[in-house]
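Second attempt. The first submission of NADH dehydrogenase subunit I had a stray character pasted in from the spreadsheet, which I only caught after the job came back as garbage. Lesson logged: always re-copy from the clean sequence file. Corrected sequence (124 aa) follows.
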Amino acid sequence: MYGQGLLKGLSITIKRFFGSNITEVYPDEYPELPEVFHGSFQLNEDKCVGCRLCAKCCPNPVIEIETVRDENNKRELTEFKVNLQYCQFCGFCIENCPTQALQTTQEFELSTYNKDDLVLNLLK
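This time the job returned cleanly.
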């Protein structure tokens, strides 16, 4: 029968038209994001050992880490920057962190007018 695809498409449209509203009112209500959402980054400085595995496994040169050795020959973080301009939000850096010091947050509003604001300095 000709027009079967048209009738099937119109039936879906009519169901959605008379059904419940599924649109979210974004600025007034924030959406519920899944647990595995990759938003902005968060660093737990106490857990980070400065091994640079997160920077080495990143497909783009996004993460910059600088460390200094203290008197006990232990590494201390002096700089931890993430350039979101080139980040793919793939999560390789989080998966390869041996101490799970690097995590993602639920923050998704990362747009800016200035490119310099896309470089996150994660040390407090």
